[in-house]
Amino acid sequence: MNKRQKQKQKTREKIVSCAKELFIQKGFLHTTTSEIAAAAGIAHGTLFLHFPAKESLILEIMDTVLEQIQAALQPVIAHAGNLDEIIRCYLDLIEQHEAIFSTKAREMPFYGDELRRKLLFRDAIIRGHFHTLFQQGIDDGIYRQVDIQTALTFFFGAIHYYLSLKQIFVVDGSVIGKFKDQIISTFNALITIPKTEES
Amino acid sequence: MNKRQKQKQKTREKIVSCAKELFIQKGFLHTTTSEIAAAAGIAHGTLFLHFPAKESLILEIMDTVLEQIQAALQPVIAHAGNLDEIIRCYLDLIEQHEAIFSTKAREMPFYGDELRRKLLFRDAIIRGHFHTLFQQGIDDGIYRQVDIQTALTFFFGAIHYYLSLKQIFVVDGSVIGKFKDQIISTFNALITIPKTEES
Amino acid sequence: MNKRQKQKQKTREKIVSCAKELFIQKGFLHTTTSEIAAAAGIAHGTLFLHFPAKESLILEIMDTVLEQIQAALQPVIAHAGNLDEIIRCYLDLIEQHEAIFSTKAREMPFYGDELRRKLLFRDAIIRGHFHTLFQQGIDDGIYRQVDIQTALTFFFGAIHYYLSLKQIFVVDGSVIGKFKDQIISTFNALITIPKTEES
Amino acid sequence: MNKRQKQKQKTREKIVSCAKELFIQKGFLHTTTSEIAAAAGIAHGTLFLHFPAKESLILEIMDTVLEQIQAALQPVIAHAGNLDEIIRCYLDLIEQHEAIFSTKAREMPFYGDELRRKLLFRDAIIRGHFHTLFQQGIDDGIYRQVDIQTALTFFFGAIHYYLSLKQIFVVDGSVIGKFKDQIISTFNALITIPKTEES
DNA sequence: CATGAATGAGTTTTCATTCAT
DNA sequence: CATGAATGAAAACTCATTCAT
To answer: Which of B135, B137, B108 is nearest to B123 (CA)?
Structure first.
């Protein structure tokens, strides 16, 4: 990469990090492109040299985060192969990136069709891993035989609910952090066949 | 009621029904007061004679629906006293009013503070009934001993998730209708202590 | 006057007193006819049975006040025939009705042509008396020989200035009350030929 | 200055001159931002690129005029140090800018607090110079020993009065021009100790 | 490559007056 | 006589995107 490309790359990263900060603070919908440009220290028009439209910014940001999460989840999925573990790991990751996930949960219905489709696709991949491990748990006689899709919707729906209404659950700090343990233990209690039942 | 009061009442109802129709089609946030007035066949200013502000319209509409639901739920709560029944009834009601509930689920984070608070308060009352019956079920040894709040968030979170992303689950028709049976049976399967386990 | 007429008269007075109160508080321009009707306990439309238009209300109110002032000034003009006395009396009266005069001073440029003309006509009559007495003072060798019209504009201009910008001179209470003594003594000092000069 | 900066400057000046023209014709309060944009030959939104709010326009316009006046007054204040001269100069300047000063005199009570404060502050500076020179005149035994503040309020109050009711004093042309000589000579006659009195 | 000036459609609410009841 | 529902014009400000410089 020559010097010019490096500079361009740096500018792009500056835009992304500033945009992310603003999206977290004010939401994607209520952040203006000039604010982002001003925060990144570039001209308003320059923003559009790096990103063809405002939506491509949120796509890039969410894509990066979702990739990180997938990457962080990968080893857990590969090795442990235990739903409980992956749930815990997933929630830790969501908590880490909660600010931007909260924005996404609230605003997704208002994004353009394509953007929304892409984001949901990323979600679906992660959900796929949960599905596989859930199925395994059922096959292994650990989990009850329930409709996995629906059971997972209970799980992800609750996460989505906490995130999208975060403001009413916590004043400051993390919703997921606050409810994580309860979510995990209750979800486990619901899907797991108790040891005592086996006897 | 004299003729003028009747006429006023009629105008008000016309506004409400047209507004509801538009809110369902385009969302509350993207419906303009002019559109509503035009649809209702009244002058733009007349709208504000009946409703002091745009938000009071959505409040009235949602309040009416939520009241209807509470009223319809009341006898089921009083007599049957069975969570399963109330869940079924609740979902039937949500399905009936699904269009407006979908709008509410999507947009609530963007409503003004007071409006949101009022809507959440209504939700909380209904949720309270679920809680009571869930507790009863646990006391009766029918349901597993889990954290009720969290378990209910799984349930309501899933409903919320289906409603807010309705557009990606169904093209036309009802999401709740589509998933109702799975929701009910899966939720039951998760919380109920199987008969065989008892032996 | 029969009973019906009496009732009508009473309603009219109620309207006037409520309107005056509101005009003082919020200004004529920012008081709405519905507010006045509500304050007077009558229907909005009823207001227009008593007063053909909003402006006729301010006219009536100002007319009454200006008449009162003229009436109160009359004996002073007739008997004493001394500018100093009439100035003092006039300022006392303005102070008494300062709230409504402040509104008038601020808003007059925005009144309709006819209303403004009528109000200015009333002012002119009072000013006429000042003129006469000023002239007498000059003839008597008490006051300097200056252009009376302009000298009076200094006086009335200052009053007008204090009234129209009342809000910046006093927080609560009377501007005229605050500056009355200075106005009188300074105006006197300016127009009076000092005793010592005569010798 | 490069071409773009020049173009921007030109647009800004066009806005200011058109706005000033309109403010003079119809008053600031009754001129709309659309009208200004149309008159300046720019898009409505462009106006807000140059001025964040309508009030900032009147502020800029009045500031420029008041600065010009202060600048024009400066040498007179510095050198001559004579109240009579500064009065004459001041009235000439007011006459020059009479149209906009008339609007200001009429509308100031209705401007936002901050704008009004700023305008009054400018006025106060100029008044300060009058005060100084008046005091000097008293010290030099030229002017009578009167309360300067009040005497100046007679002067400025009269100017304000003529300006705010300009429409009733002249049909076309300048009020200040019409009454300037009388104002000056009368004010002088009132404050000056006659030569004959000294003997 | 970067800049930043220009675009222009879009929306809630107010209020004096009228007239059918 | 009194009522009060209906009228409808009017106005400031935002912001993603473009394109001449």
So the answer is: B108
